[in-house]
Amino acid sequence: MTNESLLGTFEQLVLAAVMQVGDEAYPPLVLDWIKRNTGRDVNRGSLYVTLDRLEKKDLLRSSHGDTNAERDGRPKRYLRVTREGRDALAYARASLLASWNGLEEILGGTS
Amino acid sequence: MAVALLLATLPRGFTRDTILGDLAQEYRRRLVRSRLGATAWYWRAALQLSAAYTWDRIRGAPSALSQDLRFAVRSFLRSPAFTLFAALTLAVGIGATTSVFTIVDGLLFRPLHLPEPDRLVRVHVTEPAHDDWSIVVSGATYLDWRAQARSFRGLAGYRSLNFNLVGGQFPEQIRGASVTANFFDVLGVDAALGRTPSPTARETTEQTVVLSHSLWVTRFGSDPGVLGTTLHLNGTTHTVLGVMPEDLAFPERTALFVPSPYRVPVAPGAPVDRSDDRGAQYMSVLGRLAEGVAVEAAQAEMDALSQRLAELHPEHQAGEGAAVVPLKDDLVGDTRATLLVLLGAVGFVLVIACANVANLLTVRASGRYAEMSVRMALGAGLRRIRRQLLTESLVLAFLGGVPGFLLALWGTGALLGLAPEGIPRLGEISVDLRIFSFCALMTLGTALLFGLAPAVGLSDHRGALSVDSARGRTADRRRTRLRDLVVVTEVALSLVLLVGAGLLVRTLQTLASTDPGFDPTHTLAAHVTLPSATYEDDEAMRAFYDAALASIQALPGVESAATVLSLPMHSNARGTFGLSVEGRSDASADELLAGYQVVSPEYFLTMRIPVLRGRGLLDTDRTESELVAVINEALARRLWPAEDPLGRRLTFWGDPEDPDTEWATIVGVVGNTTPDGLDRPPVREVYLAQHQLPLNRTTFVARTSGDPYALVPALREAIGQRLGDYVLQGEDAVEGKGGIDLADMASIGLYGVLSYSVAQRSREIGIRKALGAPYRGVVTQVVRQGYTRVLIGLTLGLVGSVLLGRTMASQIYGVETTDPLSYLTATSVLAAVALLACWIPATRAAGVDPVDAIRDGTA
Q1: d(C-alpha B479, C-alpha B764), whole Å
Q2: What is the pLDDT of residues B380-392, one digit of tens each?
Q3: To the nearest 10°, the Cα dihedral for B325, B327, B329, B335?
Q4: Would you give per-residue pLDDT tens digits along chain A (111 residues)?
Q5: For A43-99, where are the E strands, in sequence order?
Q6: Is A23 on the interface with B (CB under 8 A)?
Q7: Residue B583 CB: number of other CB atoms within 10 A?
Q8: Percent of chain B scoring above 70 in pLDDT
């Protein structure tokens, strides 16, 4: 079942980015990915807050990663999109695509 | 630093750890490139993160807060009476106390804007033998003091005078002061612009003037070029020497300072050197104590000096003393005692307000145990409930605080408006935020503290047990006892405070309701000084006065109009002069001192001063007829204690030995009017007919049938000159204030507590009715039960009042500490309010359908 509340645009972006980065995903990499692929300079604070919120909604899960001296002995937070997360993303995509039906020509023409 | 910021703002736990780790990792990588860049990056990231998390937390909170708010508003709407009483109590408590504290603070406690104000004193002449204050000093006495007293670094003389300022856009009458050259030096204030006269300057050929800051701004548009120019004051040319600083407010309402050409200030009337005159007492003396000399030491020296002077000049100064009074005390003068008493009364208001709020909330709390217990049983945490109660208190605080602030603003304005002319330093007062905060904190703090009362004691009895006990409402003895206790305490406390307030108010009444000897209500006054250039002879002045009086009397709304030299209670230093009485060479110089007034015939009628013997002045007392005088009772008693003064003759200025002296025949005796302060004895006075002795300055007084203010424009027009006018006010208006508020406060609080407490019993009443009790029986019983508690409270209160009265003895004047009127009034007011407070909710509850009442539990 998909979450009844629609995902916000930024939430979609974050979820997608986590999936794109893959198994090694942890916040700085996600931030990098978004920056590189969308050209948006994302506020670091917003990213972390959004990650927390997605996790609270069970769309995202994080796990303890390795620590090292470079990180002052602090753990990495590995991120993985849950099944619900994937469903929510798919639903968001589907509803967006549905809403775009028939507009492709116009949108495509202008871009 | 940045890490500390993150630790403070980020939620504790795993997430925070990883974030710090991420940042540390990236920081190290950037460090390789540039240390500064890395640090800057770290800071930026830290700020972004803490801002985002803080904002997130705030956004997350409102759901709980708005829930609390909605709940608070609902709960207040459910008990509108409670809410109204509580908010009203808070508002009145904050508003009234702030107003009065502001005024008292402004008058008593704020420092003068003068250097070393503690060393500034005024020196008065006193007549201890007659308990008769004569606050003004003669020129010769001042010079003696100045020459001989060692306690002072300097003594200066000054006298308020009205000046006609001619030139510029319009001629204007301005209140100024004639001062001795050393006045500014003694005061310790230098000119802000230009200079003040040299302290040793005397008898210079050139007349000079120093402007006040406000005159400089209003009349000269703050033009620095005014220095060195000349002004025409009372027909004489004066060179502008300087402008005084803005914050100088001494002497009161002085727009310009004219250094006297003599060694003493100029007296009103013709500019004559009064350096050797011991009879004419007309000036005030300001002193600056020498280094290390205390007021007491100066007083001791002045006592000795006065004694010497009295021996030297027995004809004028026998029995005279001198009083050295700190300037600050002197400025506030007689009002000081009144103000302190008022402060005491208002302190009580604040205490009552706090006690009332506490009581109301406690009573309400006792009715809410059930609600709290149910909520806890349903799983609400103690913290959550406390937060809810705190929110309610804050809402209440807001409901009371905002109107309280408005009331404070309005009240201060109103009090200032009511204040009689002549209360010094009023102009410097405005609502003080510190004081408002203090009063607000006191009352709101009480509200917050007692608002939490329902949560107190909850922790120890959680769960089903307390819900159970809450259901059995009628049987809950503990609750009932708490309510009873609150009612008894409230009644007792209210009575104590009301009696205390009553005593203070009665004290104020004796201070203030002293009959001033005239009726100041519905009168309007305007001062005029005729420019001597235009009105150079008596005939011209008579013609002006006749014409102006005729046109004022013709104004619609004017009942009568008259002229007088200076109004009673508006002449702070009118002064007394020596007079001669035919055939009374035996009288001492002191006995022959009197003030004089020049009035038009309608004056006694207009001011409602009673003519006790003989007649007042008439239209027929004119130039060509016999010179007449009317004296007041005080003078009649002094000079002719056993004889009839009518027909006797006196003169102020004539030489009794000179056969050509024009004697004025006494044709009447009128009532005394209170001179400068209400607790001062009346001054002896002689009234002369304006037509026979026209002076170039006078005050028009009109008695109006309606609002005197409405006539100001018409009066201006009728006199045809730009004048300073003002409305006379009764002195009682200010003082009544404290008492009224206090009675209101006590009643509001008592009514709230009692009626709420009775209403709490509606469930029980319902059961009684359901069991068949008759309506009247129920009401009677509830009222009787409520009243028993009231009577216990009243008894305790009376005991407390007697104790309080004893401790207040020092603050009470002219009233016994067991003043029956205060006790009776307070007791009956409370008893009546209590009866209403029991009866109204009892009938309401008895009228309610029993089923509703039993189900509901509360009305």
Answers
A1: 14
A2: 777 777 777 777 8
A3: 110
A4: 444 556 788 888 999 999 999 888 899 999 999 988 888 888 888 899 899 889 988 899 988 887 778 888 888 899 999 999 999 999 888 888 888 787 777 776 544
A5: 60-64, 77-81
A6: no
A7: 9
A8: 68
- Gap between the Cα atoms of B746 and B348, Å rounded: 10
Q: Which residues of B touch A26 (CB under 8 A)?
A: 18, 22
Buried b (16+ CB within 10 A) or exposed e, B255-294: bbbbbbbbbbbbbbeebeebeebbbbbbbbbbbbbeeebe
Q: Is the dihedral of CA B284, B288, B294, B300 positive or negative?
A: negative
Alpha-carbon distance B43 to nearest alpha carbon in chain A (angstroms): 12
* Chain A residues close to B56, C-beta within 8 Å: 49, 52
Q: Are B541 and B528 in contact (CB under 8 A)?
A: no
Residue B784's DSSP bridge partners are none
Contacts of A70 in chain B (CB under 8 A): 24-25, 28
Classify burial at B715, counting beta carbons within 10 Å of its beta carbon; exposed 0-12, middle 13-18, buried 19 or more: buried
Dump the DSSP string for B266-314: PPSSS----TT-SS-EEEEEEEEEPTT--HHHHHHHHHHHHHHHHHH-H
Q: Give the C-alpha separation, B157 to B173, whole Å.
A: 23
ipTM over 0.90: no
Helices (H), B61-196: 62-78, 80-104, 139-148, 183-187
Which residues in chain B touch residue A67, judged by CB atoms under 8 angstroms apart? 21
Select the more confidently predicted residue: B526 or B668.
B668
Sheet strands (E) in B716-767: 725-727
Please answer yes or no on whether B52 and A45 come within 8 Å at the CB atom. Answer: yes
Answer yes or no: are the C-beta atoms of B845 and B755 closer than 8 Å. no
By the CB < 8 Å criterion, does B21 face chain A? yes
Instruction: Compute the Cα dihedral for B810, B812, B815, B819 and give only its sign.
Output: negative
- In angstroms, the separation between the Cα of residue B54 and the nearest Cα of chain A is 10
How far apart are the CA of A24 and the nearest CA of chain B, in angstroms?
14
The burial class, CB within 10 Å (0-12 / 13-18 / 19+), for B355 is buried
CA distance B41 to chain A (A): 11
Taking CB atoms and an 8 Å cut-off, how many pairs form between chains A and B? Answer: 63
Tokens 């109590």 belong to residue: B89
Chain A residues in contact with B49 (beta carbon < 8 A): 44-45, 48
B697-747 pLDDT per residue, tens = 777 888 888 776 677 677 767 776 444 433 333 222 222 333 444 455 555
Q: What is the pLDDT of residues B56-111, one digit of tens each?
A: 776 666 566 677 777 777 777 777 777 777 787 777 777 777 777 776 676 666 65
A76 touches chain B (CB under 8 A): yes
Given CB atoms, is B48 within the 8 Å cutoff of chain A? Answer: yes
The SS3 call for residue B688 is strand
- SS3 per residue for B426-460: HHHCCCCHHHHHHHHHHHHHHHHHHHCHHHCCCCC
Considering only CB atoms, which chain B residues are within 8 Å of A62? 14, 18
Closest partner CB to A48 (pick from B25, B26, B52): B52
Instruction: Return d(Cα B408, Cα B730) in angstroms, integer.
Output: 23
Higher per-residue pLDDT: B373 or B687: B687
Q: Is the dihedral of CA B358, B364, B366, B371 positive or negative?
A: negative
Tell whether the model's pLDDT for residue B667 goes beyond 90: yes
Out of B21, B25, B53, name the one closest to residue A49 (CB).
B53
- Verify cis geometry, omega within 30 degrees of 0, for the bond prior to B694: no
Asked if A66 is an interface residue toward chain B (Cβ–Cβ < 8 A), one would say no
Higher pLDDT, B616 or B423: B616
Minimal C-alpha gap between A11 and chain B (Å): 15
Measured between CA atoms, how close is A111 to chain B, in angstroms?
A: 33
Q: Which of B5, B9, B15, B18 to mutate to test the interface with A (most CBs of A within 10 A)?
A: B18
